């Protein structure tokens, strides 16, 4: 696959690849706190059913996953484990930070043991606010991430140059390249 | 029932002894198994370090603290209403039940009591959060044993209860609805009829789970006679809730404690089981969901009229004093020791959460069990990480 | 003398069950009990001497209080940081730092607090015990209640109180290299010190509130 990392892929092929990637995301569920239950409701319950979006929530190991949902409070004791699991995931990898605690510390903003935001440890693509966010909010976050993947330059992502959108859907997202999205 | 339990327990002990003999003959080497902090088989981020000899656990130690958020320190820099918003998130499956003992403790120091209507609605919401909590346990139980179907049923029927809580309080998960002196608001129109129909659905859910899981031969052979906790040991470790009642202790704070709630106004019974094994703990919880639906049904018939809030000042100062209040939460006895120094916020709050005591027995109960039984024993002890670590 | 009001004639509420329970506890403790308090229809507090902590817990247990509820501690010194709502640029305000112990008295800054309950009932007792300021050491009660193991680890981690005879005094919640004892009142919450508490803005009246006040005045 030397073509991809050199960025010499014809545009229609890139579009096809991106579409394939965005609709077959294997998501590793990192359930930490209250949000894990809402994530479970979004991923495991018949009412919300995440698989209709082309997301498969069942990998047994982070080595098979494209996307990780950090759902819940990240403590200083947990942070090294999160970093290590993120490093085990293959490129290209995406991160959704779910809930106020993972976004910024949330109600524990002044605690002595809570990390104030998972973005201090790993890069985040989509933030889903809420305490905890409803399952619908998480699904919206996933849809936003899929839009971003569809507009992505695969070569840049492979080379680790951040998420630069290749062909913007609207004029705004061209300037938003590399900046995380906030759902809701 | 007891006979079968005895026989299985004896055969389990005999197999353990035989296995220990095999371990000696084969000269198996010890090995340390680390489960967690993130592992599909542990719900939440509990980490278990187990030293094994062959298939048997020689020594096991849970390592908590991956979810420690420093609640007791944070309460000291917050006012009483702010603390209510915080303690919702201790046991996140039954949030409303966490608020009640704290508010009751504050009311006790102030010397006030909520109106009868508020007490009644509090009890209804308390039992609804118990149903929401334990129904997910019953679904999750299947997943721990390799049966995936029950969890879909659990999520389906739990949504109905969450909708009710959301309709009444505005919060699906964390209601933050309880106030010193009563409740934030009255029940919405149509709540009573809707709740009745949901309670019917939940009774059906209990029947379904009973048929799917509890009558299953594999389930029975994996839980009967395994992880037995005798009564004396359970008391020494401070086990509470269904774990204690499954060891044959007839004790329920809802019945035995004189408290400003409405449990004494309805007819229900405390479920106990004499065996003290994993099956007993799961069975007691299942029956308790049934009892809870009965409690809610009866309470709906007898809601008294009147306001839901007594007159309290807008900015609440709690006078100097100390109080201990505990209630029978979904996970067990949850209590708050509140020390106030005539201030807007508490001086010190000791949070006694049920899972912390329930899980401190793990090193004792895991000694000598087989590796697959670690998961079933942990599942049946039932803990919530936020409730252990706080 | 005539009573000033109706309320003065009513006697203080009696709670005979708790009175007899307190008498039984004080009887078995003897000279080990330093102070006690019984609030009718509420609870019992007993403070025991530091030297007799383990023996006293054992004695109360032998009365039938076999259910171990919890063990923790209280730091009675008021926090030098208040509620953590100070302006970091202004000089620190004066604060009252006198130590006042709560129910059943005491003489030291730190006090142990444990609760034992008679199973099957709600008869419980809150046991307190002073922690010497210099040695900060109390006897461990793990030989009496095996369940106290984790509670003592937590108390050691949070307050720095040592338990003589504890089998395994390690950190339970925090990383092994954590410094300081978070629940001591002089442990600062740094996030609150470097940044003013954002809730202070709530003090400003909302537009709606002003109108309300005006209409009340007019």
Specify the number of helices of chain B.
16
At the first level of CATH, what is the class of the domain at 16-78 and 100-180 in chain C? Alpha Beta
Coarse shape of chain B: globular
The separation of the N and C termini of chain C measures: 48 Å
Question: What's a concise summary of this model?
Answer:
The complex is a heterotrimer of chains A (184), B (390) and C (218). In chain B, 51% of the residues lie in helices and 12% in strands. Chain B has 390 residues and is an alpha+beta fold.
Describe the model.
The complex is a heterotrimer of chains A (184), B (390) and C (218). Chain A is globular. Chain A starts with a helix and ends with a strand. Chain A is 38% helix and 13% strand. Chain A has 8 helices and 6 strands. Chain B has one domain (71-357): Orthogonal Bundle (Cytochrome-c3 Hydrogenase, chain B). In chain B, helix 12 (278-301) runs parallel beside helix 15 (371-381). The longest helix of chain B is centred in the middle third of the chain and has 29 residues, at 116-144. Chain C contains 6 helices and 7 strands, in the order ααββαββββαβαα. In chain C, a hairpin with a 3-residue loop joins strand 1 and strand 2. The longest helix of chain C is centred in the first third of the chain and has 14 residues, at 16-29. Chain C starts with 5 loop residues before the first helix and ends with a helix. Chains in contact: A-B, A-C, B-C. Chain B binds chain C through residues 64-65, 68, 70, 72-73, 76-78, 108, 232-233, 235-238, 249-251, 253, 256-258, 321-324, 326, 333, 335, 337, 339, 341, 345, 348, 350, 352, 356-357, 360-361, 364, 389, and chain C through 41-43, 45, 66-70, 72, 74-75, 78-79, 83-85, 100, 102-103, 113, 115, 119-122, 124, 126, 145-147, 149-151, 158, 171-174, 182-183, 185, 187, 189, 192.
């Amino acid at each position: 696959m030397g073509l991809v990392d050199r960025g010499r892929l014809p545009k229609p092929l890139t579009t096809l690849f991106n579409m394939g990637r965005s609709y077959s995301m294997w998501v590793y569920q990192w359930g930490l706190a209250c949000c894990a239950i809402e994530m479970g409701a979004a991923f495991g319950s018949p009412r919300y059913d995440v698989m209709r979006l082309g997301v498969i929530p069942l990998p047994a190991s982070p080595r098979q996953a494209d996307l990780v949902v950090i759902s819940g409070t990240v403590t200083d004791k947990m942070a090294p484990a999160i970093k290590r699991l993120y490093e085990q995931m293959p490129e290209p990898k995406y991160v959704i930070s779910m809930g106020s605690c993972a976004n910024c510390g949330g109600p524990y903003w002044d605690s002595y043991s809570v990390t104030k935001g998972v973005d201090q440890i790993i890069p985040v693509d989509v933030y889903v606010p809420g305490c905890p966010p409803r399952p619908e909010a998480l699904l919206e976050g996933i849809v936003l991430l899929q839009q971003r993947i569809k507009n992505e330059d695969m070569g840049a992502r492979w080379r680790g140059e951040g998420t630069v959108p290749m062909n913007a859907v609207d004029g705004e997202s061209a300037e938003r390249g590399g900046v995380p999205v906030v759902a809701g | 029932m007891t006979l079968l339990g005895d026989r299985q327990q004896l055969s389990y002990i005999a197999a353990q002894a035989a296995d220990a003999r095999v371990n000696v003959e084969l000269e198996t080497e010890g090995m340390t198994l680390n489960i967690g902090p993130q592992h599909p088989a542990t719900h939440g981020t509990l980490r278990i370090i187990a030293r094994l000899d062959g298939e048997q656990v020689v020594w096991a130690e849970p390592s908590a603290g991956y979810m420690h958020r420093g609640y007791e320190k944070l309460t000291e820099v917050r006012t009483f209403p702010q603390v209510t918003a915080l303690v919702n998130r201790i046991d996140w499956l039954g949030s409303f039940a966490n608020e009640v003992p704290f508010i009751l403790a504050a009311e006790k120091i102030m010397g006030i009591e909520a109106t009868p209507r508020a007490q009644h609605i509090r009890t209804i919401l308390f039992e609804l959060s118990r149903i929401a909590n334990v129904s997910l346990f019953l679904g999750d139980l299947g997943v721990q044993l390799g049966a995936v179907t029950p969890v879909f049923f659990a999520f389906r029927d739990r949504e109905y209860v969450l909708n009710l809580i959301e309709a009444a309080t505005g919060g699906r998960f964390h209601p933050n609805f309880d106030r010193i002196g009563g409740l934030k608001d009255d029940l919405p129109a149509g709540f009573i009829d809707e709740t009745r129909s949901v309670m019917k659905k939940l009774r059906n859910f209990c029947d379904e789970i009973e048929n799917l899981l509890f009558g299953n031969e594999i389930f029975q052979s994996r839980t009967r006679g395994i992880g037995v906790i005798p009564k004396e040991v359970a008391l020494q470790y401070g086990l509470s809730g269904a774990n204690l009642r499954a060891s044959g202790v007839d004790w329920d704070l809802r019945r035995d404690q004189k408290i400003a709630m409405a449990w004494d106004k309805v007819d229900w019974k405390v479920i106990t089981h004499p065996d003290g094994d994993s099956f007993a703990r799961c069975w007691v919880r299942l029956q308790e969901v049934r009892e809870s639906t009965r409690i809610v049904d009866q309470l709906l018939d007898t809601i008294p009229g009147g306001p839901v809030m007594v007159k309290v000042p807008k900015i609440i100062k709690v006078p100097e004093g100390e109080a201990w209040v505990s209630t029978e939460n979904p996970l067990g006895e949850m209590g708050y020791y509140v020390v106030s120094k005539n201030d807007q916020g508490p001086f010190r709050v000791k949070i006694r959460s049920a899972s912390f005591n329930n899980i401190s027995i793990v090193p004792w109960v895991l000694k000598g069990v087989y590796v697959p039984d670690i998961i079933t024993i942990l599942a049946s002890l039932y803990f919530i990480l936020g409730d252990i670590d706080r | 003398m005539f009573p000033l009001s109706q309320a003065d004639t009513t006697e203080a509420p009696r709670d005979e069950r708790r009175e007899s329970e307190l008498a039984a506890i004080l009887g078995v403790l003897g000279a080990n009990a330093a102070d006690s308090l019984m609030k009718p229809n509420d609870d019992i507090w007993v403070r025991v001497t530091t030297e007799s902590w383990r023996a006293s817990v054992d004695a109360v247990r032998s009365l039938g209080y076999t259910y171990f509820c919890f063990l923790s501690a209280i730091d009675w010194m008021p926090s030098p940081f208040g509620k953590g709502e100070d302006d970091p640029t202004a000089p620190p305000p004066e604060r009252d730092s006198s130590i006042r112990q709560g129910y059943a008295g005491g003489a030291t800054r730190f006090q142990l607090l444990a609760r034992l309950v008679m199973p099957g009932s709600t008869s419980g007792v809150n046991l307190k015990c002073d922690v010497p300021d210099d040695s900060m050491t109390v006897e461990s009660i793990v030989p009496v209640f095996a369940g106290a193991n984790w509670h003592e680890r937590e108390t050691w981690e949070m307050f720095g109180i040592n338990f003589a005879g504890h089998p395994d005094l390690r950190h339970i919640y925090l990383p092994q290299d954590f410094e300081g004892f978070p629940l001591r009142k002089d442990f600062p919450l740094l996030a609150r010190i470097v940044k003013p508490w954002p809730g202070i803005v709530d003090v400003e009246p909302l537009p709606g509130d002003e109108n309300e006040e005006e209409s009340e005045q007019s």
